TrEMBL record:
It comes from mine drainage metagenome. The lineage of its organism: unclassified sequences, metagenomes, ecological metagenomes. One of its GO terms (biological process) is glycolytic process. Transmembrane segments: none annotated. SMART domains: Enolase_N (SM01193). The keyword Lipoprotein does not apply. This is Phosphopyruvate hydratase. Pfam families: Enolase_N. One of its GO terms (molecular function) is magnesium ion binding. Keywords: Magnesium, Pyruvate. InterPro entries: Enolase, Enolase-like_N, Enolase_N.
């Protein structure tokens, strides 16, 4: 793995979305680039949908990130997007992101993709 694609740091903070609802914003930092993404909650809440947040909401999602998720991301190869996403699924283990929250997983995944695109100096689409 080229050193410039090693994930050096990642963080999550709570922000307020356009509906005035608390959500999460994730940042993934590489040697030469950073990616940031947030994930507001959708309006639908069908029983087969991914859970936006674990029990306790966006604040719990942030706390779980720092206690359970972050340590496994540091040092990962950011180029391996499938591996990154698989890690999030595995650390959650529920099948519907009810443990870490789908919003956290989405924000982290997109932040990683943006960090790689920024490092490669290409648009993300």
């Amino acid at each position: 793995m080229p050193k410039k694609f090693e994930i050096l740091d990642c963080s999550v903070r709570n922000i307020v979305d356009s509906r005035g609802t608390l959500t999460v914003e994730a940042t993934v930092r590489l040697q030469e680039a950073t990616g940031v993404s947030s994930a507001p909650s959708g309006a639908s809440t069908g029983e087969t949908e991914v859970k936006a947040f674990p029990q306790g909401g966006a604040l719990s999602s942030r706390d779980i990130f720092f206690k359970e998720v972050r340590k496994g991301i540091i040092g990962m190869n950011a180029l391996d997007q499938a591996g990154f996403d698989s890690y999030l699924e595995n650390v959650d283990g529920s099948g519907n992101f009810s443990v870490i929250g789908g919003n956290l997983a989405t924000a982290l995944s997109i932040a990683n993709a943006r960090a790689v695109a920024n490092a490669l100096q290409i648009p993300l689409y």
